[in-house]
Amino acid sequence: MESLNLNNLANSLPPSNLAKAEMDLTDDFKAAALSLTTLYRSSKRTSKRAYNTGYAAACQDMLVMIQQGVSAGDSSDSDGQGMAIGRIMDYIEARLEAIKSCEEEDDEDEKERERERSKPGTSTAAPAKPAPPLVAAKPA
Asked: Are 109 and 129 in contact (CB under 8 A)?
């Protein structure tokens, strides 16, 4: 009957360490939150790069088509179409450069965040930086 005596149950249990259990739980939640944040940033970066790659490919295809049209066209065209095509080509080249520089900035920002994360005693939350707009001004 000694095994059924509930008065001794409190004495037979291991000492409660509530503070350590709460810290362990907090650490687990922090690790999970960091994993989700990393996953979100990684997928956002991958999605943005895929978009930019597709956009750059479309611009490149358009540029090639226009260049072929210019080289096949009559150079004595007097209706001014050559100038319009030149402006389109300049715009597309500027867009390609803007996409390339934006991706380079993103790469540098990501490397900086990785360096900050690897430093001991620093916060893992980086302030959000608004992305620069990808739309260039219309050529004059």
From this structure: yes
